[in-house]
Amino acid sequence: MKKSFRNLSLLGVLLLIVGCTSETKLKEQVQRVIKENPNILISAIEEKPTEFVEAFQKAVKVAQGELAKRREEEEKRKLEAHYDNPLKPKISNSDAIRGSKEAPLVLVEYSDFECPFCTRGYNVVQELRKKYGKKIQFIYKHLPLSFHQQAMPAAKYFEALRLQSTELAYKFHDEIFENQRKLKNGETFLKAIVKKIGADENKLAKDLKDPKIMEKIQNDIKEAGKFGIQGTPGFVINGVPVKGAYPSSHFTQIIGELKKRGKVQL
């Protein structure tokens, strides 16, 4: 009884102190009183533990919502900047371009063959290619992560197959992402794909040793880093970055905004 009375007395003093003041001043005074008399808060929690936990959980949900809203607003600001100042991935004859080189939509992906999220990215790219048809070109670039042991070997195979034809490289690409779990079998799985797609195995073995293969992959990694893409998958659609395995609707919104601003003609 004495404990409750003492707490009520302290709270009463607190209310008298902050009864008529500005919101900022009120917060400062409340913080000071609680800091000087921490037992006010401790006793309140001890006397009403259930109510405190419920209030705390509610506050956490509110805070999470606020943080998510801030992140979303920050992403929107970043996107706004890239509409007028687009990123410029280097696309040359050493890149495997899927689709028409004249297509107005240019989708570049920085990916890791072993990354499970990149399988989602693969499915999204397939959806976009189906939706936009001849209006979109796709360029697969490499960002093999160090903790994925089979990512780099697969990237080398892709580039070596590209020296035979872009079509073979993308047949290999599709086979991996449609059967990604088998990639744990390493070279056995990669060689099985090569045989299945009908590539020249002798030429492949020779091309895998070409230092230009590794040079190409390293250039892709550097370009991704320059664009602030550290994880996979990462994309650049007509100069606008998309970091993560977003659904196709996210890309469609960006394309709609590009069209609205006169940045692309479809």
Question: Care to describe what's here?
Answer:
- It is a single chain.
- The protein has 266 residues and is of the alpha+beta class.
- The chain folds into two domains: 2-84, no CATH class; 97-260, Glutaredoxin (3-Layer(aba) Sandwich).
- It has helices at 2-18, 23-36, 39-47, 49-84, 116-132, 151-162, 166-178, 187-197, 201-207, 211-226, 248-260; strands spanning 97-98, 105-111, 136-142, 234-237, 240-243.
- It is elongated and about 80 Å long.
- The N and C termini lie far apart (77 Å).
Total of domains: 2
The CATH superfamily name of the largest domain is: Glutaredoxin
Overall 3D form: elongated
- Helical region count? 11
Query: What's the N-to-C terminus distance?
Result: 77 Å
| Largest beta-sheet details | 5 strands, mixed
Judged by helices, strands and strand pairing, the structural class is alpha+beta
> How do the strands line up in the largest sheet?
1-3-2-4-5
Series of secondary-structure elements, N-terminal to C-terminal: HHHHEEHEHHHHHEEH
Low-confidence stretches: 1-11, 13-19
Share of helix, binned: 55-70%
Comma- or semicolon-separated keywords:
266 residues; 2 domains; disordered N terminus; Glutaredoxin; five-stranded mixed β-sheet; elongated; 62% helix; alpha+beta; 5 strands
Provide a short characterization of the protein structure.
Helix content is 62%, strand content 9%. The protein has 266 residues and is of the alpha+beta class. The protein has two domains: 83 residues, no CATH class; 164 residues, Glutaredoxin (3-Layer(aba) Sandwich).
